[in-house]
Amino acid sequence: MRMEEISIVNFKNINEATVEFSPRLNCFIGKNGAGKTNMLDAIYYLSFCKSFFNASDLLNINHEESYFMLNGSYDRLDSSETITCGIQKGQKKQFKRNSKIYKKLQDHIGLLPLVMISPSDVELILGGSDERRKFMDGVISQYNQNYLDDLLKYNRAVVQRNNLLKHFAAEGRFDADLLSIWDDQLVEYGTRIHRERTEFVEKLIPVFQRYYTFISQGNEEVGLVHQSDLYENDFGQLLKDSVMKDRAAQYTTVGVHKDDLLLKLGEFPMKKLGSQGQKKTYLVALKLAQFDFIKEISGIKPILLLDDIFDKLDQHRVEQIVTTVAGEQFGQIFITDTDRSHLDAIIRKLGTDFRIFNVETGKVKPVS
Ligand SMILES: Nc1ncnc2c1ncn2[C@@H]1O[C@H](COP(=O)(O)OP(=O)(O)OP(=O)(O)O)[C@@H](O)[C@H]1O
């Protein structure tokens, strides 16, 4: 799959841009703060109906304006797709596929597979367990629409159950039957979520380790372990056994909303012992494994966005990454950098079609 063209109006610092892309490699070069990442984010937005960075849509509208528009043309499985998105202050977000408005944005997720590798991925290592659950959920929902549905229902049931626990505490009473209505829902959705996450992580691990070994040239061993209350226990029983604890805490203390991924360097946590370059390598390997995974399941090569990928990595690792993404298994790539030297190496290696764009204070111009 590839994006052929994007038109942008008032998206962050990009007031107006229409850019035609290469089917293989597209490089955005410019100084810090020029708008390179904003270009990638606009592409990301058209796949996920949201920014990679800002949860609030309003933050993506240019500060001086009251709306933004994005329009992307794609070649997907040999047919053309046009995706349009418009955000106007005070109005509902509009997302259209071939001029037809989506009733539910959720229906769009997965149509245009995409993997973004960004410096802010480091939160996956440094942040709380919610970051790592978000990672699993984000990938699985790209190929499994029912998963997102289960997740929304599960999260709603957790909120309701927690409200009930708080209500009981405030009233100084307890009704086990009433609570068990939510237990049944948690078990139904939670068991399916657990199964999907387990399968995903099991398939991801060997691919991830292969990428890590290749990029680090076998210098380190890494691990990835899915941690969940549901591995050892029947979920329904677990909820029953935890009732006293839940009542004291006034929230649901067990379940898939507590899942985590243990990210390891050798036998130790990557978070504590990994160097900056090792952490970056870990994240690149993880995201490339995600790429393979989505490609295999969807039968489509995702778009790959590489933001500031070379920072913190030594020359060997950079070369290994370049060699990897230059391979046939990858499709269209968008890459940002502050200078051309890394990119020239990629271009030489790819020996294939490419386009370079200069980005300067929100203006995007092809380099002839
Ligand atoms: N809503 C907005 N309206 C106007 N400008 C914005 C908005 N949101 C972000 N910006 C501006 O966009 C610029 C950041 O652009 P971007 O993150 O794309 O830079 P970059 O070229 O990737 O830089 P770096 O090399 O430092 O990563 C900043 O100057 C920021 O102030």
TrEMBL record:
It is found in: Cytoplasm. Keywords: ATP-binding, Cytoplasm, DNA damage, DNA repair, DNA replication, DNA-binding, Nucleotide-binding, SOS response. One of its GO terms (molecular function) is ATP binding. SUPFAM superfamilies: P-loop containing nucleoside triphosphate hydrolases. GO terms for cellular component: cytoplasm. Residues 3-345 form the RecF/RecN/SMC N-terminal domain. The RecF protein is involved in DNA metabolism; it is required for DNA replication and normal SOS inducibility. RecF binds preferentially to single-stranded, linear DNA. It also seems to bind ATP. Belongs to the RecF family. This is DNA replication and repair protein RecF. It comes from Maribellus luteus. The gene is recF.
